[in-house]
Design a protein that fits this description.
Blueprint (H helix, E strand, L loop, with lengths): L6 E3 L2 E4 L4 E7 L5 E7 L2 E3 L19 E6 L7 E4 L28 H18 L9 E5 L2 E5 L1 H7 L2 H7 L1 E7 L8 E6 L2 E5 L5 H5 E4 L2 E4 L4 H4 L4 E6 L4 E7 L2 E2 L5 E3 L4 H12 L5 H9 L11 H27 L16 E4 L2 E5 L1 H25 L6 E5 L1 H5 L1 H4 L19 H20 L1
Parallel strand pairs: 1-8, 8-11, 9-12, 15-21
Antiparallel strand pairs: 2-3, 3-4, 5-7, 6-7, 6-10, 10-11, 13-14, 15-16, 16-17, 16-18, 19-20
Helix pairs in contact: 6-9
Length: about 425
């Protein structure tokens, strides 16, 4: 059993996304393991939910935490899914021009999400080391990033200085109820989002060793190339030339999936199929205007299961036939999306979903093509990653010129940035070992 004073060492990569924070860690086998926490939170107190539950839940469910940090004023938070429907709910805001209101580097929402995610990563990595005291002391250098424009304007020092230090995260509910994680962050690196993502296109970590991914590295050696990271709140596009990142041309656009998700939710909630639901709510004085309390819930219930099944089926058929499968565009054989609200179950919302997916795809394609034409004229390869790729996968999967990740890795696409930060952390660790 470890002493409560024993300090353990851990490597992670943290991507503070505007939909869900992405976290990648090296598990006990030395392989990359990733998870998400929805980027939503609400203020809490020390009591929380009187009906606490720490069985039959996932590690990121019911995250009622107490955080002690010199970088935060408040101490008690509901983080992720458990914040749904709570008073004071906070999530990244998007207006009709898809402008994110608050910078990630100054956002308490992203800061709380990241600290909570790092604490969960520590528990996942050191489950066997948790003793009777239920306390982990973990030294973890911080490897994360900021959007290209924000990095250009503000640099990474402000956020890095904020997260350096000692942070105590106590879990008051959920699977980890009663466990306290003390994060000791003495050093770290803030990268440019998108500019680092290419590392996870070419590399993986298997049993603690960095390995190359077949077929991609050669393309990066084939002249200039571009990596487009399509996110929830913004899209980062990085141009790499013979001498490295072109910091002038590389940029990020205030264009992401959040706005289109909001439009889907609004239109679905207003369907005549749900007229009786809305009437019941109005007559009872309830203020519920949607079956979904936040974007992440909508994505989990409506979009992700269909997209994941589509990709899984493609992989299975390709393996069985020994050839790449080309999906039919026939609407009758295409993806089907359904929504449920109370006693109204499985209402077909395919037309609404595909309409806004197509609008997002068209907008993203326009940005990508414009960048290619005006800033990356000599690029032989233009790679796409990020959650936006999966969000509109029915359209992106048949795109010309722009390249998707290998099919077997495409479901990992939302984690490419956090994986890249972890790979960078591993490289840094190895360099220090060699120099010593």
């Amino acid at each position: 059993m470890l002493s409560t004073e024993t300090v353990l060492n851990m490597l992670t990569g943290a991507d503070g996304s505007n939909s869900a924070g992405k976290f990648s860690l090296l598990n006990r086998s030395g392989n990359i393991e990733s998870f998400t926490i929805p980027t939503i939170m609400a203020p809490a107190d020390e009591k929380g939910d009187p009906l606490k539950k720490n069985t039959n839940v996932d590690s990121t469910d019911r995250l009622h935490v107490r955080i002690i940090s010199n970088s935060l004023h408040s101490k008690y938070f509901f983080v992720g899914d458990v914040a749904r429907g709570k008073d004071g709910l906070v999530e990244p805001q998007t207006d009709e021009k898809t402008q994110i209101i608050e910078n990630k580097s100054t956002s308490d929402l992203h800061f709380v999400n990241i600290l909570t995610g790092l604490a969960i990563a520590a528990i996942k990595r050191f489950t066997d080391e948790i003793g009777e005291a239920k306390t982990l002391n973990v030294n973890v250098p911080y490897y994360g990033g900021l959007p290209i424009k924000e990095f250009k304007e503000m640099g990474g020092e402000g956020f890095l200085n904020r997260i350096l230090g000692r942070h105590t995260i106590e879990f008051l509910d959920g699977l980890h109820q009663g466990i306290t994680v003390i994060l000791i962050i003495d050093t770290g690196e803030i990268y440019i989002e998108g500019a680092t993502t290419q590392m996870s296109l070419t590399n993986n970590i298997v049993e603690g060793k960095i390995v190359d991914i077949d077929g991609v590295a050669d393309k990066l050696d084939d002249g200039d190339y571009v990596v487009g990271d399509l996110g929830a709140g913004s899209s980062d596009i990085a141009l790499f030339e013979h001498d490295g990142l072109n910091g002038t041309s590389s940029t990020n656009y205030s264009f992401g999936t959040n706005l289109f998700i909001d439009r889907m939710i609004t239109e679905i909630a207003a369907l005549p199929d749900f007229d009786d639901i809305r009437t019941i709510l109005e007559e009872s004085g309830e203020n519920n205007k949607s079956p979904y309390t936040n974007r992440d819930e909508f994505m989990k219930r409506v979009i992700k299961p269909v997209i994941e099944q589509m990709i899984t089926t493609e992989l299975k058929e390709a393996k069985e036939k020994g050839a790449k499968v080309k999906e039919t565009k026939d609407k009758d054989n295409g993806p089907k999306f359904t929504a449920s609200w109370g006693m109204r179950r499985n209402v077909d919302v395919t037309d609404i979903v595909l309409k806004h997916m197509k609008d997002y795809y068209d907008g993203a394609l326009k940005l990508l093509q414009n960048f290619s034409i005006t800033k990356a004229q000599n690029a032989n390869n233009f790679f796409l990653v990020g959650g936006g790729l999966l969000f509109a996968y029915p359209y992106f999967k048949d795109i010309d010129y722009f390249q998707l990740p290998p099919k077997e890795m495409i479901l990992e696409s939302p984690f490419f940035t956090s994986r890249a930060y972890l790979i960078a952390a591993k490289l840094e660790e190895e360099l220090k070992t060699v120099s010593n």
